[in-house]
Fold this sequence. Notes:
Layout: H1 3-7, E1 17-19, E2 22-31, E3 37-42, E4 45-46, E5 51-52, E6 57-62, E7 67-79, E8 85-97, E9 103-112, E10 124-133
Amino acid sequence: MPMSLIKKFLLILSATLFAGSVLAESYSLRVPPGKRMLVASLAMYDTDTCTFGAIPVGKLVTPPKHGRVEILQERRVIDGGQCGQIQGWARNVYFTPAPGFRGADFLRVDFEYNKWTDAPGITAITRNVTLAVQ
């Protein structure tokens, strides 16, 4: 994979696995009962120009069985490496467990975005999130 492609992506909450034209990540999180929690986030960032890219669109592919999901466009402050702390737009995913629920749940979100000029085959990032409501 060309170094210029790797430099183009700053993926929040991720150590991303490259798989063809889709970047995918699976992870587990503990969620407090009855509390809304940020469970996934994505912002596109260009390390060459110190600017944010297009704001991804979030699509809930597999909804949780025991709670609700909100997918919002919000401002985030991130560590931009050589550019320092920068602020830009991200797509954030929040999960709120159903009242009284404790146990395991799962959700999948696909983030779709405009193609980078030097990475024309990469247009989506998937987050598979296993949730432990405790």
